[in-house]
User: What shape does this take?
Amino acid sequence: MTTLDDLPLRDNLRGQVPYGAPQLNVPVALNVNENTHRIPEAVAHDIVARIAETVIGLNRYPDREFSGLRERLARYLGHGLTAENLWAANGSNEVLQHVLSAFAGPGRTLLGFAPTYSMYSLLAAGGDTTWIPGLRDDEYELSAETAVAQVREHQPNVVFLCSPNNPTGTPINLETIAAIYDATDGVVVVDEAYAEFAPDGTESALSLLPGRPRLLISRTMSKAFAFAGARVGYLAADPAAIDALRLVRLPYHLSALTQAAAEAALDHTDEMLAMVDDIRGQRDRIVARLSELGYTPHRTHSNFVLFGGVEDPQALFTALLERGILIRDVGIPGHLRVSAGTESETTAFLEALSALSSKA
Ligand code: PMP
Assistant: This one.
């Protein structure tokens, strides 16, 4: 049988493992930080109608500039942004890949602060960029001092700042982001995939964009918008940075079906985002109950909670799975991560965990 080793694979991909969060058919899946609420039926009908109109024209290539989508995304983000400031792709993973294709690559480096989103190192490897896993402070926080020292030391071409950070939930404050920007000539990306779940009053890094042409803010419709299956991520930046991304995207990368679906969803932003408050409430409930059970949940601005104090993460993961509840072992010793679900999913998780926890 032929194996990967027999193929003339690029050297830097040898020994790499593909992204592989388990996709299991279980009653309660709280492992990949999805929004577990289904799309409101009225909105779904509207999306279908918009797609139906599009199907008849699929003989033609889609709008390469996805203008309607960019206008709607700009309107949603506010902050004085216009369509010229917006970019989109098939998930924010692809957006980040575009950024690395334009600004990183062979002989160049990407700095992130570990533990962080596992795709960053894989995206780096895919484009032959050197991944530098920087260090955080205690409790997975990132101070300006700690970050700037590492930026000065490594002089990366690109910095990825995940805020709130996956898998820890930790936000990065705007002073730290601004200090990192000032400490580098490279591109600074703030991955705000989970921004909508932050407490009221939390300022987005979007407010830092004016006057910072090397700052790029990445977002997604996969989480708060409950649109993960549609694959729509986006980014806001100076129009010059958007021009750079245009150089590396494949022509017509966003299908007419994707554009139609995303536009329709954005025409119903309030309904699509209606469950965000509920999810934040479930997240807070998880944090409170985990503490009562003797675990140590970390500070989170996201729709998930990383908790420590787990004696045997793999054993607890398996015991929950046997009860139909899938969460995530992110490989941090003594820790597991769980996404906030609907009220009943969250209850199922907390009840199973209480039953399994000798600490309560
Ligand atoms: N960034 C972060 C921090 C994420 O956690 C995820 C999804 N897990 C993504 C980006 C990618 O999301 P998508 O490609 O669905 O937009």
Summary: Residues 33, 91-93, 117, 162, 166, 191, 193, 220, 222, 228, 233 surround 4'-deoxy-4'-aminopyridoxal-5'-phosphate (CB under 6 Å). The mean pLDDT is 96.
